[in-house]
Amino acid sequence: MTDHDETAERTTVTIVTPEGRGAVSVLRVRGPRAIEITSQGFRPLHGSPLSQSPLRRLRLGRIGAGMGDEVVAVVLASGPPEVEIQCHGGPGAVALVADALQALGAERVSVGDQTEGDSRSPIVQAADIELAGAPTLRTAEILLEQADGALDRELQTILDRLDRAPNEAAEALETLLERLALGTRLVSGWSVVLAGRPNVGKSRLLNALAGFERAIVAPTPGTTRDALGVRTAVDGWPVELFDTAGLRPSDELIEAQGIARARALQGKADLVVLVLDRSEGQTTSDRHLMDAMPQALWVANKVDLPAAWLAAPDRYLNVSAKEGSGVAQLAHEIARRLVPSPPAPGLGVPFREEHRRILRDSRDALLRGQFARARATLEELTSAAGSPDRNRR
pLDDT for 194-211, tens place per residue? Predict the structure, then answer.
């Protein structure tokens, strides 16, 4: 048997997502014994062994010594056999799964060793790369669906419609472009700035939303002098919350610098939460801020204290950062404003900025009746433009 034959006959396990602290890691087992080996190591939560599962059916179970790691396994192909395993991110969980498969006879190889002959599309390979950086399970699930071919399938449907139903194809392209607003944030997340005059409770509210004490809150009045950021998840979406200096005129140099930074952050933020103190009468500063931030999410804080003014529920969210009341509703509203239309499970979601140009150019060509150009442009997403080593954000 030649070296080539020996290579072709081996069964390998590859960690296809780079090392990182993403929420999910992906391994692939390929070779003649891929289904057999994975089925031996996979303990299904219920139902038949993995070897009896239909192709592309997701199965929940565990792999690894002791309790192992909770994983999702799916048989991608029977000839040549290929199985994908999705486990928790982090080196410990990945090693637990990989070691179990190696012990059953799979040879561990690097991604580079399996590049040749990889039948997956460039979009699928790119989704695997992005998956390594997914900071929450919710965003990881969307990227996993793209790695499983969700976007590829929608693109193929659009290509099939280009000639016979160009208007439908153009509408489908427009829908994908709308999903880009979400797709390009699946790894980087969103920024939310808490704004307001000093001592309205922004720092305490940041702690309440983040779920732990990141900003020091003292019983004596004071003002934050600089922006303080904390990464968290709001309804499963990755968000960086910023507590900023209280907004007011100031001649004090350090405070004035903090206020300038606060205003700069607000200009870049995806959402500004304007915090007001319901236990004190609205000040001239409050009213100026409300006039300047009509699109902000207005929050009436300190509802645990006697009210000095009426915070109409159709305009304000009433919360108590100190006691936690209303904080869950605030988190839900933040998520709703950041992601007003979450994609249904299984939908294609473009996730790289380069996808925007290609989808837009294809749509525009289609609207001009340039069907051949629209097709050629769209097919870039399944060729070099969508390759995993280009167009990283």
Answer: 998 888 998 899 989 988
**Calpha distance 32→156 (Å, rounded):** 30
Note the pLDDT tens digit of each residue in 143-196: 988 988 899 999 999 999 998 999 999 999 999 999 999 999 999 999 999 998
Residues 115 and 216 in one domain: no
Q: Which of 294, 310, 338 is the last residue of a domain?
A: 338
140 belongs to a structural domain:
no
Q: 50 and 7 in contact (C-beta within 8 Å)? A: no
Specify whether 202 is located in the same domain as 312. yes
End-to-end CA distance of the chain: 45
Select from 155, 112, 187 the least CA-distant residue to 392.
Answer: 187
Distance between CA atoms of 108 and 102, rounded to whole angstroms?
A: 7
Instruction: Look at residues 134, 347, 138 and name the one whose alpha carbon lies nearest to residue 234.
Output: 138
Of 57, 102, 97, 49, residue with least CA distance to 75: 57
How far is C-alpha 203 from the chain's CA centre? 26
Q: Distance between CA 149 and CA 305 in Å, rounded?
A: 53
Where is 160: in which H helix or E strand? helix 150-161
CA atoms within 13 A on the CB side of 146: 33
Same domain? For 210 and 327 the reply is yes
User: Contacts for 263-270 with beta carbons within 8 Å, 24 or more apart?
Assistant: 265/191, 265/193, 265/227, 266/193, 266/195, 268/191, 269/191, 269/192, 269/193, 269/242, 270/190, 270/191, 270/192, 270/338
The rounded distance, in Å, linking the Cα atoms of 125 and 304 is: 52
- Pair of tokens at residue 132: 């390594």
**Domain end among 57, 91, 119:** 119
Query: For residue 364, how many other CB atoms are within 10 A of its CB?
Result: 15
Range of the domain at 225: 190-338
